[in-house]
Specification:
The protein is an alpha/beta fold. It has two domains: about 1-120, 3-Layer(aba) Sandwich (Rossmann fold), CATH 3.40.50.2300; about 125-220, Winged helix-like DNA-binding domain superfamily/Winged helix DNA-binding domain (Arc Repressor Mutant, subunit A), CATH 1.10.10. It contains eight helices and 14 strands. Strands 2-1-3-6-7 form a five-stranded parallel β-sheet, with helices on both faces. A four-stranded antiparallel β-sheet has the order 8-9-10-11. Strands 12-14-13 form a three-stranded antiparallel β-sheet. α1 links the parallel β1 (about 1-5) and β2 (about 25-30). The radius of gyration is 18 Å and the shape is globular. It starts with a strand and ends with a strand. The mean pLDDT is about 90.
């Protein structure tokens, strides 16, 4: 997953980043509201972990931004404030869950996985596209019942395509989603083309269908049409 942690408490922010990075997520962070909004203007995320008491404003403003822009990021509010009013306000304007500090990182991770699974696969552990089955929990892929050995980036790339099946995915959006801020150090997309080539080859070895189509000058489309 690509995750944005919005938290002004440095120790907690670093602990969350360290813990979530252990699962090879792409994690970015901001210690204030304006920094988080700036990142959202440039990048898309799977998940946002959001403190509502930030030094330059309320995290609720970020939720309002997501709703206004019709964004699809999942959001868990993480806050020391435990009032019913704050909980209801956050959930009513788009948060998927609300956790009160202090909390266990293992519980945070479990809630994130449950929400992500519900959003992508409607509560099922598997994301299915014809003969391709992607297991969100075990991070495995089968094609026609045979296992496909993918690298972490190849798996994340396939997940992104399957979650956006039928849509044109821009090269820049795909690269930013999978590499985050690291994309800024690359001068071209050669590294992306290499991953695309390898993913397509591995899938084609087990299926006669090539679902990954290039869209000239833009990016790619994962479809059987």
């Amino acid at each position: 997953m690509k995750i944005l942690v919005v938290e002004d408490e440095q120790g907690l922010r670093e602990n969350m980043l360290s813990y979530l990075n252990e699962d090879n997520n792409v994690c970015e962070s901001s210690s204030d509201l304006n920094g988080a909004l700036a990142k959202l203007a440039c990048y898309q995320y799977d998940f946002i972990l959001l403190d509502i008491g930030l030094p330059d404003g309320e995290g609720f403003e970020l939720l309002n931004y997501l709703r206004t822009e019709r964004r699809n990021e999942a959001v868990i509010i993480i806050s020391a404030r435990n009032s019913l009013d704050d909980r209801l306000k956050g959930l009513n304007i788009g948060a998927d869950d609300y956790m009160v500090k202090p909390f266990h990182l293992a519980e945070l991770k479990a809630r994130m996985v449950a929400i992500y699974r519900r959003k992508l696969a409607k509560g099922n552990n598997n994301l299915v596209f014809n003969e391709i089955v992607l297991n969100l929990i075990e991070r495995t892929v089968t094609v026609n019942g045979s296992h496909v050995i993918l690298t972490r980036k190849e798996f994340d790339m396939l997940l992104y395509f399957m979650a956006n099946k039928g849509k044109v995915v821009a090269k820049t959006a795909l690269a930013e989603h999978l590499w985050g801020d690291e994309i800024d150090v690359h001068d071209n997309f050669d590294f992306l083309y290499s991953h695309i080539k390898n993913l397509r080859k591995k899938l084609l070895e087990l299926t006669a269908n090539d679902y990954l189509h290039s869209v000239y000058g833009i990016g790619y489309k994962f479809t059987d049409a």
